[in-house]
Design goal:
It is built from 27 helices and 35 strands. The protein is α+β, with helices and mostly antiparallel strands and 868 residues long. The chain folds into six domains: 169 residues, Rossmann fold (3-Layer(aba) Sandwich), CATH 3.40.50; 129 residues, Methionyl-trna Synthetase, domain 2 (Beta Complex); 195 residues, Isoleucyl-tRNA Synthetase, domain 2; 59 residues, Rubrerythrin, domain 2; 136 residues, Orthogonal Bundle (Isoleucyl-tRNA Synthetase, Domain 1); 61 residues, Ubiquitin-like (UB roll) (Roll). Strands 26, 27, 28, 29, 30 and 31 form a six-stranded mixed β-sheet that branches. A four-stranded parallel β-sheet has the order 2-1-24-25, with helices on one face. It has a four-stranded antiparallel β-sheet with strand order 6-5-9-17. A hairpin with a 5-residue loop joins strand 29 and strand 30. Helix 9 crosses helix 10, helix 18 packs across helix 19 and helix 20 packs across helix 22. The longest helix has 23 residues. The two termini are 67 Å apart. Bound molecules: ligand ANZ and zinc ion. Ligand ANZ binds next to strand 11 and strand 15.
Length: 868
Amino acid sequence: MHELYQPREIEAAAQTYWDEQQSFVVSEQPGKDTFYCLSMFPYPSGKLHMGHVRNYTIGDVIARYQRMQGKNVLQPMGWDAFGMPAENAAMKNNVAPAKWTYENIAYMKTQLKSLGLAIDWSREVTTCKPDYYRWEQWLFTKLFEKGVIYRKNGTVNWDPVDQTVLANEQVIDGRGWRSGALVEKREIPMYYFKITAYADELLSSLDELDGWPEQVKTMQRNWIGKSRGMEVSFPYDQASIGTAGALKVFTTRPDTLLGATYVAVAAEHPLATLAAKGNAELQAFIDECKHGGVAEADIATQEKKGLPTPLFVEHPLTGAKLPVWVANYVLMNYGEGAVMAVPAHDERDFEFAHKYNLPVKAVIRTAAGDETPAPWQDAYGEHGQLINSGEFDGLDFAGAFDAIEVALLKKALGQARTQFRLRDWGISRQRYWGCPIPIIHCDSCGDVPVPEEQLPVVLPEDVVPDGAGSPLARMPEFYSCTCPKCGAPAKRETDTMDTFVESSWYYARYASPQYSGGLVDPAVANHWLPVDQYIGGIEHAILHLLYARFFHKLMRDEGLVNSNEPFKNLLTQGMVIAETYYRLEANGAKTWFNPADVEIERDAKAKITGAKLKSDGLPVEIGGTEKMAKSKNNGVDPQSMIDQYGADTCRLFMMFASPPDMSLEWSDSGVEGSHRFLRRVWRLAQAHVSQGLPGTLDQANLSDGQKDVRRAIHLAIKQASQDIGLHHKFNTAIAAVMTLMNVLEKAAQDSTQDRALLQEGLETVALLLAPITPHISHDLWLELGHDGAIIDTNWPVLDESALVLDNLQLVVQVNGKLRGHIEVPATASREDVEAAARVNENVLRFTDGLTIRKVIVVPGKLVNIVAS
Ligand code: ANZ
Ligand code: ZN
């Protein structure tokens, strides 16, 4: 054993051993408990960042711990390899996205391997490879035939200069991110997954996910947004509209029906189109509404604007004529694309009515009891008793809901309806680097799914996009084809799928990654699924997790899996944050400096007084800690840390610095501290091993001091087992091992018993650290004389008897005041304890001259002597 801890050497040796033994390659073993541990797979952006390292270390600690519990553990890894960054990099560097992506994957794989993750690499999946996406296309055709996927016109962001569709995040302040052109809304045919058909189940089965953070479930519930309301029809005023008919609206507040003072429709609504005929001003407004992003957040915050029309509708209960407005706050693809406006009780309507001087009629009594508070300062949005509503006056929300439904039903002008905020999932992207949509357009047969034997529709990999629309749409060699039904010349779809589609089912593919008979081999998939532990960033709390849950149900309904939910337990890891440093430039902009290039200045008490740039020695401002990000230049490259200290130090620091679900602050001194701790472990083990290994411990004959050491060993086992196994609190588990190390370093090493005890202690340290710092543990285990590898060893078993104390320390009080301590045998009777307390010298002193009235013994804790 080397005298010094040399991580580079021992890490290489451990990794070579695992590779040669194929230690992490797993197969189905009937009868053995399985544990499927999955970390969200990375996008191959170039190199690992700290967030990845944290995510994968957490997953690895859990996987290795479960393996030590004797379970058959599956921990796979792959690449979420399609997506826009590859296209952007391609344009910048003039390389094909495929080449860029595959090179990144190769590099990042070596990085992941250097972390020593217990991954079954034989199951690696890469979503941009045809052997992966062919199954996505296969499922697509099945779902298209079933009607779960359909095609209809959808609204997209259109960049008129770049002639391309933009994702919401590419629209910045209403303009295209590259061209700066004003973005337009455009209607184009798109494919949709009918996720709304599963809305109810996606909502209700959240209740079964006990192993998910409450916060994530709440976010999903809000996203799905179930609301019970009523659809209400406002008959057309034929004089102004010209035809018979009715304007349908959806409202969650039918109790406010008598407070409706106007109706408003979306710019795309047919009544808006009708009113705009021959009305240039209105047409211009409608066109303006079609500009700007389609993101909901933009719509919620934009200034409310509208124009009146000459059209009127009739109130369904009173027959009063209400004007029809066109308003930018009404969304076409929500509810009915029209609202009944109740300014007194709806925030948006209030703001609008205020601006355009529309009447406000209060129909709900406020909590303060106001009937007609005027002037109104704001809408009153709470539920309450009805007023100014004729026969409905005095009813509460529920009563009014039902009574108004009855009244509307009688006139066939309304009925209760449940509606979801969730929209169908539009998956068409007019981009190159994605999975081709397997549809062929034929003039006579329509949209024909590509037959199974013609799959996959392979994406050509040698294309360099130029940013102006999809290159596929300009490649006849890609899109020219014949119709599978009639054989006539036809055109292949050139849109690709949203990359969220690939990440919605990869976890299932890992079960049988090479299976060529289908998307999954159902028997094998059911052996492993659902995932026992899923780990990833909170940024995926909504979309990715919702889509994956949806896909699981789709796969279930195709007979591919038999569970209802994909992820039993979810751990959302916190952010990695670091200090930021900047200088204010003359133009007001900030230049950010990387922490590695900055030197901290401290006063005598080590308090930070300032910082300066290493290169020029001049001061920089300290900007506070923030999430590691390119924009603030505060990222620390994990590779440089691994190169300098080794993977184990890196892993130990990440797990020790904070619990996994909290944010982790980067600290150089924390890394150094972790490294020092591993060196201490090494030093103690080296000193021990160099004297030859001791014989077995004679447990029956331990001195008091030796019993204390053994108790420390088993206390550490107890603590670490609870912390890792039950709570995922790796930081406190590590603290328990550190406490044990303090004891072991001070323990006597004279007798053979002492040395046998230290052997048990060091073995325990190696085992408890094995999930966290697997390389050093691997080496120590061999040095401590074991033939087998620690990776095949079980987690240490707690010896309860070692925790039992021979003697107990009790607190002694006189009249409730602490007056001393006594040590008594753990087996002492109440009488013995009382007797020992009575003769304690402090007790004698404080009861001198008094009569002892009562002695209270709380076993194992204290004795209180009441004297007066
Ligand atoms: C009248 C009313 C009175 C409303 C009131 C609210 C408060 P959730 O809960 O999200 O489902 N709404 C309906 N369709 C809309 C559309 N296409 N664009 C914009 N807003 C629309 O919201 C339902 C409420 O959102 C509906 O109830 C409607 O306004 C509005 F005191 O109707 B309410
Ligand atoms: Zn045809």
